[in-house]
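Bug #77: duplicate submission created two jobs. Keeping one. Sequence:
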Amino acid sequence: MSVEFTQYLRPYGKPITVLISMPEDIENKAKQLNALGCHFDIEELTTGLISMTCEKDEDTYSSKLCKNGPEVVDNVRQLIDEAFNKIMNC
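Kept job's structure:
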């Protein structure tokens, strides 16, 4: 199972699509968020940190900042859970 992110590549922010493997429950939450118009973005900052967001229009429902490496997967899980809980509990 995987979740689709738009990754912005340095130095000019060229967008590409990347898939991040997630458990089925997280993928299902991501699909529900996508159906509501949300999208997921991810990029490596010049500091080497990874920035990721879940947004819809001008609203950011969740954002995470972490080191590049194994902790990215856990932060993706947290990002989706937080956004899902904010939107579904409104």
